[in-house]
Amino acid sequence: MKRIKLGILQTNHDKSVDVGDAFPDDAHRFRDMFDAQDDRFQYRIYMTIGGEVPQDLDEQDVYMITGSPLSVLDQHIFTDDLMDFIRHCDDAKKPLMGACFGHQAIALALGGKVEKSPDGYNVGIEDTVIHSKRSWMIPDRDRLPMYVFHEDTVTELPMGCELLGSTANCKNASFAKGDHILTTQAHPEFSHAFMSCVLTSAEGAIPEERRKAVWDSLDQKQEGHIFGLWTTEFFKRAMGHA
To answer: Do 10 and 27 form a contact (C-beta atoms < 8 A)?
Structure first.
């Protein structure tokens, strides 16, 4: 069977010794997650962090936008082009998934609202409680524990979008639009080792009284790989609707 061509828009390039040099980058973490599945993709990585976005939607069959330590609320060299790309995907009903920064960017591009959380960073493993089931949610889950690490949060969904899931600290943790857009505020691509490393590096940004609870949460089982399976099934079905 011909492989689906997946374009990964990478909005982060960590050059730090402790994190960036110790682990694969964002796009490769997603590749590792997808490559553990039976269905395989043909990949093309776009270094959007440097200003690269697809020039033609038909370059790939489906697309996804990664997370980033950057704030979607700030202006970056790629912001305008990324927002235009998202809107073009929506207009053409091109299958698109966004995680964390990508989730927030899609919300902003389509007319939603993103704000900094008044409670600061939300970090650890949280259950995404599923409110609306979709046919591509195979295997079925009522809740999905996944790694989270974010300060910005989607506070208002774009018109025409449906809330799929919420966490205890993030109401709009996952949403969809039609059969062509899927998002998650979580990081399904994170491993325990990577999350622990990032948390060690950044725990100074977390209030001291909350740090133990954050570290304790990492002892829970997480199922980001299930969201990965959902994403693959979402892409396959979205292509059928395109």
So the answer is: yes
What pTM, to 2 d.p., does this model score?
Answer: 0.96
Asked if CATH classification 3.90.550.10 holds for the domain at 4-241, the reply, yes or no, is no
CA 119 to chain centre: 21
In the chain, domain spans = 4-241
pLDDT, tens digit (0-9, with 9 covering 90-100), for 36-54 = 999 889 999 999 999 999 9
Task: Round to whole Å and give the CA distance between 53 and 85.
Answer: 7
